[in-house]
């Protein structure tokens, strides 16, 4: 009996070791250069043929890619606009501590350039960022303790409202999607300070669903939705940014014919923005967007306007900005200009996440759509 137990134990140990070896990662490092000028080739698209493993060279041509050891029998390709593609056996790159990849220039007639090929590396960066949201941000139940500010100016009147907001998220960023965010995020307003009285539901509306919906990483919406990326025009900004001491790719995006799934706005006619992606771990660092729409529901940009509704915003132009830290969303701002009741309105809203911690006791199970609830 004892001998049999020992044999089983040894078998299990060997199985675990074998499993660990099969998933061990090999780091491939190197630099991509022009074979003639010896200058770095930035943003080269690098990937394993037939898999989702890939990366891009940085502004100096350097790259680093972690590859499972069992994939050493595959081919790795290097593709950059203006250069001939090159492929190598992965095993050849495993054998070297540092790989110098030389690409040969290729000339094109202007009519032969494939715009989609220029964007391929950007699509890969955005897909990778999307796939890594659950790993880069907190992926457990959390409570977010926030400060809320809203200011609305119309004519000679200025209304302001400040409050403390607690947001409970039962799943954090573990399974980001619009459905998951709606089901698992609830919030509560307290300590409300304002300089006006709320005589209508519209006056008391917090519009928090609209604000939280701007956290595109939580819902994997818009440019972070791989399923609709092909509908965006993408371009890389030449100057790299540094956010939270991290070097970032800055990718401009624009949807020529805005859709609801792409813009998040029911009636958008213009939608463009920038997204900042950490070059080290592909985490989302910041998102900025600019939107125009002829009309908008006063309770939020993602709501339709019913046939009998006459009280809505017109001539709307707005921008929003969302910044992130290592845990998740840190700051959201929304700035709107529109016409309401024939008068021009300027409205600014901010949500500042002061602290993210494991979910508190007495979990919030509802949403304060109106401040008096």
TrEMBL record:
- Xref: Gene3D superfamilies: Carboxypeptidase-like, regulatory domain
Which Gene Ontology molecular function entries are recorded, alphabetically? N-acetylmuramoyl-L-alanine amidase activity
Write down the InterPro entries for this protein, in alphabetical order: CarboxyPept-like_regulatory
The catalytic activity of this protein is classed by the Enzyme Commission as 3.5.1.28
Q: Identify the SUPFAM superfamilies for this entry.
A: Carboxypeptidase regulatory domain-like (SSF49464)
Q: Does the keyword Hydrolase apply?
A: yes
Keyword annotations from UniProtKB, A to Z: Hydrolase
* Protein's UniProt name: N-acetylmuramoyl-L-alanine amidase
């Amino acid at each position: 009996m004892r001998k049999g137990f020992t044999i089983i134990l040894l078998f299990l140990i060997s199985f675990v070791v074998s499993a660990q070896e099969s998933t061990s990662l090999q780091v491939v490092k190197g630099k991509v250069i022009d074979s003639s000028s010896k200058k770095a080739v930035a943003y080269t698209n690098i990937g394993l043929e037939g898999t989702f493993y890939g990366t891009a060279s940085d502004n100096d041509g350097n790259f680093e890619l972690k590859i499972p050891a069992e994939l050493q029998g595959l081919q790795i390709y290097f593709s950059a606009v203006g250069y001939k593609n090159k492929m190598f056996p992965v095993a050849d790159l495993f054998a070297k501590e540092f790989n110098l990849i030389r690409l040969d220039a290729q000339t094109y007639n202007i009519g032969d350039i494939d715009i989609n090929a220029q964007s391929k590396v950007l699509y890969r960066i955005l897909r990778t960022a999307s796939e890594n949201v659950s790993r880069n941000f907190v992926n457990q139940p959390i409570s977010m303790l926030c400060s809320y500010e809203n200011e609305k100016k119309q004519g000679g009147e200025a209304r302001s409202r400040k409050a403390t907001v607690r947001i409970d998220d039962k799943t954090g960023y573990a399974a980001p999607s619009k459905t998951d965010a709606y089901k698992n995020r609830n919030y509560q307003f307290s300590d409300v300070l304002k300089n006006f009285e709320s005589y209508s539901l519209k006056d008391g509306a917090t519009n928090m669903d609209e604000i939280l919906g701007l956290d595109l990483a939580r819902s994997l919406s818009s440019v972070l939705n791989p399923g609709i990326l092909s509908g965006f025009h993408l371009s890389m900004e030449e100057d790299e940014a540094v956010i939270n001491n991290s070097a970032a790719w800055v990718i401009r995006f624009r949807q020529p014919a805005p859709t609801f799934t792409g813009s998040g706005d029911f009636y958008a006619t213009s939608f463009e923005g920038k997204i900042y992606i950490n070059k080290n771990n592909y985490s989302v660092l910041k998102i900025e967007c600019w939107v125009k729409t002829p009309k908008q529901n006063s309770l939020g940009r993602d709501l339709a306007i019913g046939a009998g509704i006459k009280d809505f915003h017109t001539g709307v132009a707005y921008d929003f900005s969302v910044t992130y830290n290592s845990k998740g969303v840190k700051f959201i701002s929304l700035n709107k200009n529109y016409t309401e009741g024939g008068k021009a309105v300027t409205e600014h809203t901010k949500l500042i996440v002061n602290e993210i911690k494991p979910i508190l006791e007495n979990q919030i199970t509802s949403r304060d759509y109106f401040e008096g609830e």
